[in-house]
Amino acid sequence: MVPLAKREQPLRILFVTSEMAPFSKTGGLGDVSGALPRQLLAAGEDVRVLVPWYGRPDSAQLRHRADLWLPFSGERVEILSPMDHPQWLFLRHPDYERPGSPYQNPAGEDWPDNAERFARLCRAAAEIAQGRVPELSWQAELVHANDWQTGLVPYLLELEARIGAARPRTLLTIHNLAYQGRFDPAVLERLHLPVTDFHPQGTELYGSFSFLKAGLVYADHLSTVSPTYAREIQRPEFGMGLDGLLRARSGALSGILNGIDSEQWNPAADPYLPAHYSADDLQGKATCKARLQQELGLFPDPHVPLLGMISRLVEQKGSDLVLALAPELLKRGLQLVVLGSGERSLEQRLRELGATHRGQMAARIGFDEALSHRIEAGADMFLMPSRFEPCGLNQMYSLRYGTVPIVQETGGLADTVHDVDGPMAQLGNGFVFHPAQVDTLRAAILRAERYFRRTALWHELQRRGMSEDHSWRSAALAYRDLYRSLL
Ligand code: ADP
Ligand code: GLC
Predict the structure, then answer these.
(1) Is the bond into 435 cis (omega within 30 degrees of 0)?
(2) What pTM did the predictor assign?
(3) Radius of gyration of the CA atoms of the chain, in A
(4) What pLDDT is recorded for position 299?
């Protein structure tokens, strides 16, 4: 990482997020929040990360930093930091420490008080950003908010500016426009927010109050996690009802492609793998495949293409397309492993398919970090038939692990995977299809299978992907430039 030039002062950035790996993670936001702030710190910036504390047995390792009484509600929250990381600020309140995920109960339903839970995070962020927590002796110049859960932060700071207070600059990164934090407007009173901004140019979204829209309207700048997604969301097909607003704000909207944590995701040193390998020596990958087949109860055949998929099981990810095609693929003799959780009906159908095709298909329902690494390493091909994909991280993990990605052409997938038979064939690192349909997916998988049978060609394809650099380096520099341009 390029350190700051001597004359440059570190920027004081408050990064606010609802999840941060390894402490909390339901998807890519957790990965991004775990990696980007670290890169910025390494580059010499003065970063603080604020994230709720969802509880973990090793909380004894945390030290108390401050108590904070939130404005209007008078509620008390506590700020904690790990002993060795004073830059991580965990927000503790009993309503965060529940069984289930940060957003949902164990039955997969949203917590009914999510508006209150994440408004609390936003209020605390505004207090910290404005330097009103004396124990922290710190004030932000810029707040970097992420997704709907933190969408109120730019709005709360704007409300302060209206009554004459100075406020930091604000950036809202959209990781997924589909999640808009929409609530009945009755919530305004409970959250002590003005009804006067509840109109189409303000916080109203088709009759609901929306945390995300508040952020999109009032943040100084908006970013997405890939350049293609920044363009797509300005069109009605991808805009989720917000494309008009995003077109109106297009001058303040840009896209920065996510990176991957290349220490966590490194096939040459990954502690979850039974064997290690690199682009120069792929032998270990064959061992990973054999062991994965064994672990999942698949037939131990090195010559059969093994397809992998790891995903939240929701409409976005196109898992239904894979389900529809699976019987045919299995009949052809291919093997398939799917690791995921989400919609109960998809989970059920996957389980059933796995049960009727033992030896060829494994469905693992749940969230399993270790297995996700072993699938990335042991599979030959990785499926991402997403209908839309703001960035996507698994295609980049796959490239690094020599697991050739098969992706639908959208968002960050279009920005990172180039078809071996397409116009950018010289950069070809995978198989790209469009639109998101069973027929197009089938054709891409069959093309991939033909390449797989030509071993030398396949190894060249694997090596090309493995030699690419998808680390956070250039993305962190791009964020740094963006932050500076906003001040
Ligand atoms: P999204 O954030 O939309 O879910 P991304 O591709 O950006 O998609 O990131 C998903 C992250 O979550 C990846 O790190 C992926 O490996 C991980 N992940 C998703 N589902 C599971 C699961 N069931 N078990 C383990 N890891 C998972
Ligand atoms: C979202 C998107 C995903 C992206 C991730 C991290 O969850 O669905 O495409 O990679 O955020 O930015």
Answers:
(1) yes
(2) 0.96
(3) 23
(4) 98
For 30-88, write each residue's pLDDT tens digit. Answer: 999 999 999 999 999 999 999 999 997 665 689 999 999 999 999 999 999 999 999 99
DSSP string, 371-421: HHHHHHHH-SEEEE--S--SS-SHHHHHHHTT-EEEEESSHHHHHH--BTT
* Angle formed at CA 316 by CA 362 and CA 344, multiple of 5 degrees: 50
Listed residue (46, 17, 57) closest to 33, CA to CA: 17
pLDDT at 220 over 70: yes
User: Distance between CA 55 and CA 58 in Å, rounded?
Assistant: 8
Domain, as residue range, for 237: 12-259+472-486
CA of 311 to the centre of ligand 1 (A): 5
Q: Are residues 199 and 238 in the same domain?
A: yes
Ligand 1 pocket mutation pick from 29, 176, 367 by most atoms within 8 angstroms of CB? 367
Task: Answer yes or no: do 340 and 445 share one domain.
Answer: yes
The rounded distance, in Å, linking the Cα atoms of 255 and 257 is: 6
pLDDT of 391-442, one tens digit each?
999 999 999 999 999 999 999 999 999 999 988 888 899 999 999 999 999 9
Residues 49 and 162 in one domain: yes
Q: Which amino acid is at 68?
A: L
User: Separation of 146 CA from ligand 1 center, angstroms?
Assistant: 17
